Amino acid sequence: SQKIEQNSEALNIQEGKTATLTCNYTNYSPAYLQWYRQDPGRGPVFLLLIRENEKEKRKERLKVTFDTTLKQSLFHITASQPADSATYLCAPRRSGGYQKVTFGTGTKLQVIP
Amino acid sequence: NAGVTQTPKFQVLKTGQSMTLQCAQDMNHNSMYWYRQDPGMGLRLIYYSASEGTTDKGEVPNGYNVSRLNKREFSLRLESAAPSQTSVYFCASSETGQPTDTQYFGPGTRLTVL
Description:
The structure holds two protein chains of two kinds.
Chain A: E1 3-6, E2 11-14, E3 19-26, E4 32-38, E5 45-51, E6 56-59, E7 62-67, E8 72-77, E9 86-93, E10 107-112
Chain B: E1 4-7, E2 10-13, E3 19-25, E4 31-38, E5 42-49, E6 56-57, E7 64-68, E8 74-78, E9 87-94, E10 104-105, E11 109-113
Parallel strand pairs in B: 2-11
Antiparallel strand pairs in B: 1-3, 3-8, 4-5, 4-9, 5-6, 7-8, 9-10, 9-11
């Protein structure tokens, strides 16, 4: 069955360092992959979309890679700040509309001052 | 623009009681979604509405019903609540329902079933 895996353990990182979060998927061939941020007590907020033909996408301090051979996406936050502390969710998407498999379980990032 | 709004924010029910969670969006989006979020399980899709007048089951539809009342509103009904339905419920909308769409989420409803 299709599976989306994110590291369920929290990631603690020192302020100023680069945080790297992983999203692995199995039995699945997504054409797109989205990343969302979720703060405690709030709904997720969209951050970035990367397509299968884009190896890398950047937005300010955020960088996402998409390796369809490894079936993996990496999400990087450079020069991390305490305000980056949140849970980050990945959402692989096949082409062609509605899919039942939606979001990964998320990785909680804590940036320590 | 309020975006996606949900009511109520919190609710406590007894086993067997019924309730309806309300969701509305003001972005003129065609597609709307209901998710539940549980610790360690992530967001799971309950029901989906591609457009006004259509609804489809998601990953975990048992025990729920939905109504797409009009383009703006999508409600989720629990006919006979069970403790296993204790969760945080999120409504979301997107412009077309295509996989490249951004999903916009509401603030969530925290439901406890005793």
